[in-house]
Amino acid sequence: MAQSPHSPPLQPVLVTDAGCDLPPVEFDRYGIHVAPLTILFGNESYRSGIDITHEQFYARLAQGDVHPSTSQPTVPEFVDLYREIGARGAPILSIHISEGLSGTVNVARQAAQQLPELDITVHDSGTLSAATGFQVLVAARAIEAGYPVVDIIPLLKQTHEVTNLLFTVEDLTYLHRGGRIGGVRYQVGQLLNIKPIVTVEKRGPKAGTYIQAGRARSLAKAGDIFIERAAEVAGPAGKLRAVAVYGNDPTLAVQMIARLKSEFDMVYAAAIPTAPVLGVHVGPGALGLIYAPGDWPV
Fold first, then answer.
1. 110 vs 46, 107, 278, CA distance in Å?
2. Percent of the chain's residues with pLDDT above 90
3. How much is the average pLDDT of 23-32?
4. At what angle do helices 219-234 and 251-263 cross, to 10 degrees?
5. pLDDT tens digits for 91-105?
6. Beta strand 195-200 with 44-47: parallel, antiparallel or unpaired?
């Protein structure tokens, strides 16, 4: 439906994908649309978070009969989503998992090109999980404050610059099978029981891809390192935004958030399971911390 020339401009509508980790309440609160990513167990196909829940995914994974893989949405699926959302004429801001980790953002761009009649801006978050989630939250807050898309993009880039993502895994098999680590590093890590601390590079030729940022002997030790790194950017009792993510055991993630709350002025804090589609690549024994110093930019 076309907008009347005398009507106030419509608020932008947010789209992300299932590789974005946020508490479910945030998706509901801000009306964020999620493009599903698909998990494949052989011939079985599930849309992450829609056809299969977090609990169901790990129960299916535990059967061990087939290692799952993932696939991104198709161009026609994105076209249908954008058409439905854009029917009222509102601008669309579509924020997605790093191009270096998934083809989703390129599919979104192709779909947007097929819909020149709609006002669609596709943004590569350069990261994933709750680090993408922080950008989505900033966009949602900015939209609520009346910002147009053109003024939101710089806020997303600034958020990406100050947001840090660290994670580790109990079993390197999942990262290895997904092609995220080489065979030699996998074998040495498994043999010595070393947990690599992984982040997503922000700059240079490896921007938007996984790089190693340290190592630990256990998930608990990794959690200690995560908190030390957060303290370095926040300063003593400084303001901090943080989300702890986990595989199928919330214990360490909940403990990390409790420690952060006792040591910092927490602007935002949550412990949540990572999306099933990300669980394919990290397995059940995963632990991560996504954090940024200071308050929200808007």
1. 24, 5, 23
2. 80
3. 97
4. 30
5. 999 999 999 999 999
6. unpaired
Strand partners, 211: 199
Q: Between vectors from CA 177 to CA 289 and to CA 75, what angle results, nearest 5°? A: 80
Q: How far apart are CA 223 and CA 83, in angstroms?
A: 43
Contact 38, 46 (CB under 8 A): yes
Residue 132 is assigned to a structural domain of this protein:
yes
Alpha carbon dihedral 97, 100, 106, 109, in 10-degree steps, equals 60
Helix (H, G, I), strand (E, B) or coil at 246: strand
Burial of 223 (0-12, 13-18, 19+ CB in 10 A): buried
Contacts of 199 (CB under 8 A, 6+ apart): 164, 165, 166, 167, 210, 211, 212, 213
Query: Whole domain around residue 219: which residue ranges?
Result: 163-293
Structure confidence by residue, pLDDT tens digits, 236-260: 999 999 999 999 999 999 999 999 9
Domain-embedded: residue 100: yes
**Cα distance between the two ends of the chain:** 31
Tokens coding 225? 């390192």
* Of the residues 128, 161, 194, the one at which a domain ends: 161
3-state percent breakdown (helix, strand, coil) of the chain, nearest 5:
40, 25, 35
Q: Is the pTM of this model over 0.90?
A: yes
Adjacent-strand bridge partners of 44: 41
Residue 286 or 49, more confident: 286
- Please report the pLDDT score of residue 5 as a whole number: 55
